[in-house]
Design goal:
- The chain has about 500 residues and is mostly helical.
- It has two domains: about 1-100; about 170-505, Neurolysin, domain 3 (Orthogonal Bundle), CATH 1.10.1370.
- About 65% of the residues lie in helices and about 5% in strands.
- The chain contains 21 helices and three strands.
- It has helices spanning about 1-35, 40-60, 65-75, 85-100, 105-125, 130-150, 155-165, 170-195, 210-225, 260-280, 295-310, 315-325, 330, 335-345, 360-375, 385-395, 420-440, 445-450, 455-465, 475-480, 490-505; strands at about 230-235, 240-245, 250-255.
- A three-stranded mixed beta sheet has the order 1-3-2, with helices on both faces.
- A hairpin with a 5-residue loop joins strand 2 (about 240-245) and strand 3.
- The longest helix has about 35 residues, at about 1-35.
- The protein starts with a helix and ends in a 5-residue tail after the last helix.
- Bound molecules: zinc ion.
- Zinc ion binds near residues 269, 273, 299 and 302.
Length: about 500
């Protein structure tokens, strides 16, 4: 019995690994398309990718998978749900079920609407014309409701959409956590604004030659643990991180010669994603124990290195002299305290991707509440721009003058990504809890950072998070690693401790 189950497992894993190889080839084609490909190659590249996608979809929904899984779970091999085999069986079943529940016609309709939606969005945003985008968004929402119904859900359709990115999470739980965060964060931001204190951000807008930024960013990324022997850094419009094999993870950034933070913190962010990718177990590549567990946990790794480490005072005690040497004309006479305040400025703004570490979360809460209402049917698309403005007024104290800087600023909804936004915020919450746990267990991280020592934190993340793959759900992982279920407490504590001395506000 065990011997047969063992050979079933081998067959299943070989099949899934082969599919993962096809996916890695697709990633490589997509990376090339976004970084190096000549313009006129676009059409044929689309054909190549569509061809591969079709092949991958066929393999991922191959009925043999179900047979193999049925045989496997009937044996004792997969009994322990957190073992590698148990995890493989559970997660492959989840993936198979989700994919096979969707009728082919719906998959095609969603793909088509996503392409059309993104095209319409680009134009509508340029022309600041929400009305032109409205029919596309309405159609997409109709399809997403259909998708949720086909997949199935516990209490509301949004559950099915959220579950795609954050397995095991429920709308109700996330809504409660985010509402709890908003109740504390909105007043904190208002308190900061009321001080009228301005950080010296002019420092960051001086001359930072691109080639120097690249060298400095690369050196810092390597120092914190991103391996350039198993990865690389290139330039793109929209920065991303993409894995294309167990030893090949590539990150990208964009440079602004007159604004230091965008490339530098962008590199730290993507390197954080890359460090997670490089920390997955390579011998399990393509299988669930060697795969990332959720978008929220992935984002926790990027935010941890970008914000908790990269915007930490001790980090800059170590790196600031190097930055001054790299950018003498910009930073020669600048004090570390001034620079630190500048990179930690908090100010409500309209654009999510430019937001600071604190207000960023409010941008996400606005989107989460609105998209939930859209999927529930409590909000119609025609009323979306007004609802957007109202929430910005309420949570951030500002509102956009037009829709281009408001409801049209993100590509997500046009591409059908509903349930995706909250994972950015979950990432911040997870990061805060992980950071606190590492700080406790390693006996204080700041002392290490000030010495340029990042390896203890890296190894801690490797052991506690990266090498766990999908063996635990994101919620289980948070509980195991931090001893606490996910809550706003750690993130609020972090923000208050940082902002109190900078803005002269109360600490608790
Ligand atoms: Zn990210």
């Amino acid at each position: 019995m065990i011997a047969t189950a063992k050979s079933t497992l081998d067959e299943l894993c070989a099949f899934v690994r082969e599919t993962a190889m096809l996916e890695s080839i697709q990633s490589l084609l997509e990376w090339d398309e976004r970084t190096k490909m000549p313009v006129q190659a676009g059409e044929y590249r689309a054909e190549q990718i569509t061809y591969l996608s079709g092949m991958i979809h066929q393999r991922r929904t191959d009925p043999r998978i179900e047979q193999w899984l049925d045989e496997l779970v009937a044996s004792p091999l997969a009994d322990d749900p957190h073992s590698d085999i148990g995890t493989t069986a559970r997660q492959l079943r989840r993936d198979y079920d989700r994919r096979t529940r969707l009728p082919q016609s719906l998959v095609e309709a969603l793909t088509r609407q996503s392409v059309l939606g993104q095209q319409a969005w680009v134009k509508a945003r340029e022309e600041n014309n929400f009305r032109a985008f409205r029919p596309c968004l309405e159609e997409m929402i109709r399809l997403k409701k259909e998708q949720a119904a086909a997949i199935g859900f516990c209490s509301q359709p949004y559950d099915a959409l959220l579950d795609e990115y954050e397995p095991g999470e429920s709308t109700e739980r996330v809504a409660a956590i985010l509402a709890g965060l908003r109740e504390q964060l909105s007043p904190l931001v208002a308190e900061v604004v009321a001080t009228g204190k301005q950080a010296p951000i002019e420092i960051l807008r001086r001359e930072y030659p691109t080639s120097k930024q690249e060298a400095f960013g690369q050196a810092v990324a390597a120092r914190i643990g991103f391996s350039f022997e198993r990865g690389r850094l290139d330039v793109t419009h929209h920065p991303f991180c993409s894995g294309m094999g167990p030893h090949d993870c590539r990150i990208t950034t964009r440079y602004d010669a007159h604004f230091f933070p965008s490339a530098f913190f962008g590199i730290l962010h993507e390197a954080g994603h890359g460090i997670y990718d490089q920390g997955l177990r390579s011998e399990q590549y393509g299988l669930p124990p060697g795969s990332y567990v959720s978008l929220g946990i992935h984002e926790s790794q990027s935010r941890l290195w970008e914000n908790f480490v990269g915007r930490n005072y001790s980090f800059w005690r170590y790196f600031f002299p190097q930055a001054q040497a790299a950018f003498p004309s910009a930073l020669a006479g600048v004090r570390l305290e001034e620079f630190y305040f500048a990179i930690n400025q908090v100010q409500p703004s309209l654009i999510r991707v430019e937001a600071d570490e604190a207000t960023y979360n409010l941008h996400i809460i606005v989107r989460f509440e609105l998209e939930q209402a859209l999927i529930r049917g409590d909000l119609v698309v025609a009323d979306l721009p007004a609802a957007w403005r109202e929430k910005y007024r309420e949570y951030l104290g500002i509102e956009p003058a037009d829709d281009a800087d408001g409801v049209l600023q993100d590509i997500h909804w046009s591409a059908g990504l509903f349930g995706y936004f909250p994972t950015y915020l979950l990432g911040n919450l997870y990061a805060a809890q992980f950071y606190d746990a590492a700080d406790r267990q390693l006996g204080g991280l700041e002392g290490l950072f000030a010495q340029g020592e990042f390896e203890p934190l890296l190894l801690w993340l490797r052991h506690n998070i990266h090498q766990q793959g999908q063996c635990y759900s994101p919620g289980e992982l948070a509980l195991r690693v931090s001893g606490q279920p996910l809550a706003p407490t750690a993130l609020m504590g972090h923000l208050r401790r940082k902002l109190a001395p900078l803005y002269g506000i109360r600490c608790g």
